[in-house]
Design brief:
The complex is a heterodimer of chains A (91) and B (566). Chain A is built from two helices and no strands. Chain A is mostly helical and 91 residues long. The longest helix of chain A is centred in the N-terminal third of the chain and has 56 residues. The mean pLDDT of chain A is 89. In chain B, the strands form eight sheets. In chain B, strands 2, 3, 4, 5 and 9 form a five-stranded mixed beta sheet that branches. A five-stranded antiparallel beta sheet of chain B has the order 11-10-22-21-20, sandwiched between helices. Chain B has a two-stranded antiparallel ribbon with strand order 1-8. Chain B folds into two domains: 100 residues, Penicillin-binding protein 2a (Domain 2) (Alpha-Beta Complex); 341 residues, 3-Layer(aba) Sandwich (Beta-lactamase), CATH 3.40.710.10. The chains are: A mainly alpha (91), B alpha+beta (566). At the A-B interface, helix 1 and helix 2 of A face strand 3, helix 8, helix 16 and helix 17 of B.
Amino acid sequence: MRLLVLSSVFFALASAVLLYALNNDTRSLEKRAQAQQRDVSTLRSDVAVLKAERAHLARPDRIEPLARALGLVPVRPSQYADAKSAAITGQ
Amino acid sequence: MRRSVFITRCSILRRRRIEELPTRQDTSARKPIRSVAVMAGVALAFASVGVQLVRLAAKHADAPSVAINAPMATGTSRPDIVDRKGRLLANDVEMPSLYVDPQAVVDRDELVEKLRKVLPALNEQELRQALGDKNRRFAWIERGLAPQVAQQVHNLGLPGLGFRQELKRAYPAGQLAGHLLGGVNVDNRAIGGIEQYLDARGLVDPVLQAQATTRPAVLLSIDMSAQHALEAELANAVTTYGAKGAAGLVMDVNTGELIASASLPRVDPAHPSANPRPEEVDRITAGTYELGSIFKMMTVAMALDRRQVTPQTMIDVSEPIKIGRFTIKDHHAASGSMSVRDVFLKSSNVGAGRLALGAGADAQTSFLTKLGLTEQLSTDAGTVAFPVLPKIWGEAETATISFGHGMAVAPLQFAAAAAALVNGGSYVIPTFLKRSAGQKVESRRVISEQTSAALRKMMQANVVEQGGTGHRAAVAGVDVGGKTGTAEIAINGRYDPNAVIASFVAAFPIEKPRYLSLVLIYEPARTAASAGQITASRTAAPLTARLIERIAPLLGVATNRVANNG
């Protein structure tokens, strides 16, 4: 009987310790998960801003004057040629 | 042996328990007292609950209130909008919004003075009014601040001010495709265009915080490069021809996808106007216009499709058409008769009128209805303006509608009908969304393939032959076919010959068209660039040539040289 009581007490204490450890781990994981969620949210926001900035820099209204200043012009249909008509020289 | 020992132990234990139990007499003595105490306790608890309920009911009988503990959405997250090649046109970015807690403000005047220096556009009167209301704990000051400005406000160190992160719509391409995209209000809710489509289709999410959506981007049919080329060429035409405005579109004739759509003057989707000026509306979808001679495409197609005539049939155009008080004549009077083909190429009003009168009002109404020109058109970006039709569709109306007067439609609605005439005869509802590869396109046959082919030949001749009104739309390297239209504008009930809408509808490559373009120049002036003329032949046709020359390579249209060799 005494053995039963002692072992029950032991298991109860062990369970309590185990439970406490699990609880502590869970809280710690929850904190990490929340921090990571915040990081994800921040990064997603940063990505959105970077995407917008990149698209703003690459907008045609900005690129066209820069390209023309470099002497570039849009391709004309007359500049296309059939590949077969090209003179291919080689050994 | 073991069993007998066990039984003996059990009997001893049972005996002990029996000895420990109270006698029957003791139990009967304690039971009434305990029961009464428990019952009294329970009764007291119920009574106290009842009294509290009655008290609350009596106190708030005339003013019931509900406490809402559920979290309320404070913003809206919207998916990205990208062009057909995945280039970004709109997305949500997090931005700080400034608010004030009037109860926490120490010095009202100091706060207003210092804020005004950082925020010059601050509505001071509104802010003072908010600060004066001490019952309020929250009032917006400025929403969607730039991070640098927010930092400057933060550096002021004024008590009572606070920031809340919100989602704000960004349009990184600026005014590009502004009309088409629409715009959103301060709460990130749509107020028009494709943004409205997103709201209507439930593609936006209410959010508690500034949390960007994880929904996939919405793919538009627009090609950003072609859109820019169209807008640039229209702007160039407005300057060159001294016009009041211009509009245009490029459409895939087989799928109905809009590759580009623009209306000048442009609008900024980031700063949408609550009350746009008349010239700021999207002329492609929101305006209806008498489009003039480009309507002759319909008249000739109708006459050919009902086998009333062939391209070689001769039509008498020697005399003007007189119906009641109306007289229909040509700008350049022709003697004798001309073929249907020449009626098209020389844009004869009398010839078109005779073709329409030969078919009759009922046939014309029926044909235009089949092409979707007499009912309101509905697209992804909303409904287009309702066509303006004559109240009485008599002989005079039949004749004038044959060359594009007496009936006004939105350019997009006309383009959808014209696309059906050149693509082999199938009508497709236009769309601003990209169709996926292999997606079945719903269409209905409106004319025969033979009629479509005959019409395409006339359109091509109109551009290729020097006698055609559209010969200035010719592009080296691309086979183009088209039709001009110069429609006088009715001012104070009379058509003004000096105020016109010059238009040109083109298809390319004309043998088997992939794209249709439609450009309109509103009230061009008589400039040196147009040799002092305001006709479409001198304005809209050259504009079309410049546009096609620029966008054909972008759209991968093979040049006639390559196509013929290949």
